[in-house]
Fold this protein.
Amino acid sequence: MALVDRFGRVHDYLRISVTDRCNLRCVYCMPETGMQFLDESQLMTDDEIVQVVQAGAELGIRKLRITGGEPTVRRGLPKLVERLSAIPGIEDIALTTNGMTLRDQAQELKDAGISRLNLSLDSMKAEPFQAITRFGEFARVWEGLEEAVRVGFSPIKLNVVLVGGFNEGEIVDFLRLTERYPIMVRFIEYMPIGQDAKAWRKRYVPLTDVFTQAEAAGIELAPGTEVRGNGPAQYYRIPGAPGQVGFIHPVSDHFCATCNRLRLTADGRLKPCLYWADEVAVRDCVGQPEQLREMFFRALAIKPEKHEMSLAGEVLDSGLVPTLRTMSQIGG
Ligand code: SAM
Ligand code: SF4
């Protein structure tokens, strides 16, 4: 039986947060101090994750994304990836990483079965990069990116969250990067998740700003081509450039009608929607394949039609409650 929800959306994609911990503290994702992390016993084990994915794969999950927190800080990640890639039905495993350890881990992760890579890189200058990530080292991440290109990840997508006062001045630099490298630069709208809504509103940058700045710089953005695993992004290309530019605008223009994804949190809960608090506990069902499968249907049964990010901080009629989790606890 396929994973179809009340709105006819077919789900074939599971995002797995393998840890809530991270070696950075990006301003849009986590507070600088005071985060409470899961202890080892609360974290899904490799065996448990594999069983949940097996249940999902029997129901039509075909694509996985490994995320976190920072997934590469989980001990033994390549071994887990290897096991996930051996599950019948799983066709594609992608990784989202901040790139801090990629220089040393890229080859091992590729060999384990990661085919596609999203690298979060919000600035190409050392100082703003550090201001956004609080502990990040731009040079190290750039070396990680070069290593990822060398070992042959394809496609490589750069995730650029635009945050007012931090990096909106680098939009043109990021556009120009696609003229030099065969990578996808994806601009992402800052989402009000795990954030004070008022503070978020002050720093939110609509992606229409990218078009305005491109035009002011005399850069033409022509329609791009479909990219493997392209998800909700819309692609454009500077004519003649090897790379492309993607736009992910969950706030100004959501793409919920085509949502095909479920999320598994590091503490073993299935989240049907990134934004709302509703979740289903799956960890308790490990060891009982039929019940695990049933949990996927329960998650779909409570999946709402859409999020309401643009109304963050306002009182809603729907009775739905936004999640209290930070993005690092969900996985993006
Ligand atoms: N640590 C990894 C990384 O940063 O790539 C994976 C986890 S991170 C939570 C996944 C993605 O979510 C990253 O691309 C990050 O930039 C994005 N993200 C985090 N908080 C966000 C927010 N408030 N709005 C938009 N994107 C956000
Ligand atoms: Fe860590 Fe990724 Fe969140 Fe940055 S966005 S704090 S790298 S989990």
Q: What stands out?
A: The CA atoms of residues 177 and 243 lie 8 Å apart. The chain has a mean pLDDT of 94. The longest strand covers residues 156-162. The domain at 13-330 is CATH 3.20.20.70 (TIM Barrel).
